[in-house]
Design a protein that fits this description.
Helix content: 40-55%
Strand order of the largest sheet: 1-2-5-4
Strand content: 15-25%
Distance between the termini: 9 Å
Largest sheet: 4 strands, antiparallel
Shape: elongated
Oligomer: single chain
Amino acid sequence: MPIKTDSITAKLWHAIEYLNSVKDEVKSWMADNPYSISRETNSDCTRYSLILRINKEPALERWSLMIGDIVFNLRCALDHLAYAIAIHESGQPHPPSGHKLMFPICDTAVKFGKESNKRLKTLSNRVRTAIEAVQPYNRPNVEIPPLLSILRDFSNSDKHRLLHLAYSAVSLGKVGFKGPAALNDARGKFIANTGELKDSAEIAAFVFDSPAPYMEYDVIDFTMILALSHGKRNPSDSIFHERSDFISLLQIIVDEVKTGIDIVLKNAS
């Protein structure tokens, strides 16, 4: 008799439905030219700034609530997976120690060993091995923390407060700057704001040690992102991202959950 996956699929598709809805809302918001970028120069011509102007506020609270629903349903899909397998292996509609069953998400093998003995004790070794195969420490990401770790952390945070969604770093940017002072002038440097951005925040600037008049931007092509903070893959290394475009991030988390479910089901059937 095959494993019943109806509730797993329902949770997955509910998450995807919310994700598609928030994608549509963000697309509609972006179509209204919700932000613009202005130029400002200080009085002694040592700082040429690009300033964010928000023309239409994003629905951050509403979208954060929708993200919470996405995260909740993805996390539940994994727990439903563990429960469905327990029903299948025990042959009982209410499997032994069902109240303790859950799909652990652990960052180390030691932690998984402890959690699996508590949460997956009634499942076969084959299934426990399959679940361990999709744990974060076995599926690292190149640039950001492992995706199931992010899902777990989002889920835990959303139980207590709304996930923090905000304007953040530039996704795709191209800047042209011209004038008497060449860009390789030792007096000048380009700096970018990689943190959270609000209305009237400086996005980037060319800064000179001494006055450099008559300089100007001739190309400004920025795409701002609405981002979720997830911490760095490697906290000691500055090149790794600590926040990502939230729609892209949620999409790859959905894909990771689907992949994990497929791997475990293949080994449990």
